[in-house]
Fold Carbonic anhydrase.
Amino acid sequence: MISALQALDELRNGNRRFVSDIRNSNALPTHARSTSLPIGQEPLAIILGCSDARVPAEIVFDQGLGDLFVIRVAGNIVAPSQIGSVEFAVERFGTRLVVVLGHSQCGAIHATLEELQRPTENQSRNLRSIVNRVRPSVEGLLETELKNDFDALVHHAVRANIRASANQLRHGSEILETLIEKDGLLVVGAEYSLETGVVDFFDVQPTTSNG
Ligand SMILES: [Zn+2]
């Protein structure tokens, strides 16, 4: 299995290809390629991304079948089932890079900010469970000058939410925390720009381990 930093390079290079409209022909998903895959998967990275239809991880990182272990949920939030999925992949496949992939103009962030500014009574309990996980990282922003500039508010809120999810993965699981300390696991936060196609890995905290 490749190291976290090697995997990060692969993703950066893949995103550069995507932005330049160059596709790696090995990444094209075909049935013939699917039948040539090994029996077990060896994903180079685990991606916790938003469900937004415009941000499919395999495409924006120009990766193919078997390359990424992807968890998608509105607002790239971290609930127990997301942590469990990451634990499963790091333990089962040895993958050492986890990317929380948020994006500009995220609808879940919009919905949370709107709910904080104008609470509604009839929001479904299930949708509320997503809003409630985004809320702690963004509500403080409404007490700053950002509250007067909705676009800037959303921009900062998207990043705050990505940082919060990355930190929850870093510290919300003993399994992950131990692997970060002792075995080269790296959890990074990144934002995909719908406007440019560029993924900005803005929250990369280097490991101090020997991994
Ligand atoms: Zn989104």
